[in-house]
Amino acid sequence: MGALAALLRPPNAPIRGWRGRRVWIVGASSGIGAALARTLAARGARLALSARGREALEKVAADCGAAMDGEPALVEPLDLTRAEDFAAVRDRLLARWGGLDLVVLNAGTYRPLRAWELTPAAIRDTVNTNLIGPMDAVAALAPTLCAQGEGAIALVGSVAGYGGLPKATVYGPSKAALANFAETLHLDLAPRGVSVFLISPGFVATPLTAANDFHMPALQTPAQAAEAIVAGFARGAFEIHFPRRFTMVLRLLRWLPRRLYFPLVRKVTGL
Questions:
Q1: Does the active-site annotation cover 261?
Q2: Where are the domains of the chain?
Q3: Which fold, 18-269?
Q4: How many whole angstroms separate alpha carbon 126 and alpha carbon 167?
Q5: Which of the four pLDDT bands, split at 50, 70 and 90, describes residue 4?
Q6: What pLDDT does residue 270 have?
Q7: pLDDT mean across residues, the chain
Q8: Residue 248 contacts by C-beta under 8 Å, 6 or more apart in sequence?
Q9: Mean pLDDT in residue range 93-115
Q10: Helix boundaries (H) for the chain
Q11: Which of 110, 162, 171, 261 is catalytic?
């Protein structure tokens, strides 16, 4: 019975009550991060919002203030690719709050590129933002959360990391590596009381996906994405992927032989 109970137990401690919970969202100035901030503010979370642009963050913070019943959201601009920026904000939040309950690493970049359009600059810009920045952030967070013996890290990946896709020549690999990183983190941190969530959105209408010039199936709004994420936290799921009618198809495609996968992807995308 003990083994069965272990199998049925969720991988992470479910997060259901948000009132007073200390949440830091990195990449909160637009899209999914901004929508998640507004959603959690309405549920009573204490929020710190980070991204590169102060003006956009202040607008999101004002929106959160209109929904919050408690202290206003903190605005803490930073560049995730600068480890020293992240560490400085971490220290300020710990001094103010005394700890962290959830850090959402949502900052990312996307540039549609075909193989013949690759440049060293484009490669490094994407990998530094989507992979190295989050890894540096975890390096700054893990000792604190392990010392607390509780808390959670959520890494925002993408279903583009499930398999090779046209125009995701750098973006896809960066998100695939992030998923591997999240799995490894869970193995290390869960036994120490720290939850690790991997968020894998499908297509969401954000400033990044606005660059796409192709049909995006099952396109969701940022508000819908935020609700799906909150529901995933409540389940204690390791991977929170949505919309499931789309993501389940992509998950199944991973099991196809490559002689079937390649022509199917070309046919579906038209690329």
A1: no
A2: 18-269
A3: Rossmann fold (3.40.50)
A4: 13
A5: low
A6: 81
A7: 92
A8: none
A9: 96
A10: 2-8, 31-42, 54-67, 83-97, 120-127, 133-148, 171-189, 222-235, 244-253, 258-269
A11: 171
